[in-house]
Each structure stands twice: as C-alpha cells, then as structure tokens.
Amino acid sequence: MTEQRPRVVQPVRNGPVLVAGPVRIETPDGVVESDRFMVAICACGRSRNYPLCDTSHRRRDAPHRRADADPGGDT
C-alpha cells in the first residue's frame, strides 16, 4: 500500500482558502466537486459561486452575500 501525501491547505489573508485538488466539498446545500490541481474556497461569503471563490473578496465595499441571497436588494 502506498502512503498518501497530506492535503495542502493554504489560507490567504483577506482571500480564499486554497486547497490542493481534486476536492469534494460537502455543504448543507449539496456537493461540489473539482478535479483542478488547486481549488479556491470562498472564506468571505461574497462569492456568487459559493462555496468556490469568484474573487468577490477583492471588492471591499461589497456587502457579505451568499449566492442564494436576493440580488434585487431593496426597492
């Protein structure tokens, strides 16, 4: 039996958590799988592609919003 290498996880200050892939992410809303060599997982809750990061954390003025939040806002 071959020994498995430990999974590499790198938190990025004010950014996502980088995880060496492939990964399977289990959330209350379902499962997301990625076979990429590195996967960025949203740590701020702003991503419209949650739980994957879409770089929304770069917009510091943007409100914290999950992908299932109402995009229409108050009118």
TrEMBL record:
UniProt name for this protein: CDGSH iron-sulfur domain-containing protein
Keyword entries, A-Z: 2Fe-2S, Iron, Iron-sulfur, Metal-binding
Pfam families attached to this UniProt entry: zf-CDGSH
UniProt key word Iron-sulfur: yes
InterPro entries cross-referenced by the UniProt entry: FeS-contain_CDGSH-typ, MitoNEET_CISD
Claim: Secreted is one of the keywords in the record: no
Domain of life: Bacteria
Region (Disordered) location: 53-75
Domain Iron-binding zinc finger CDGSH type intervals: 20-63
Protein source organism: [Mycobacterium] kokjensenii
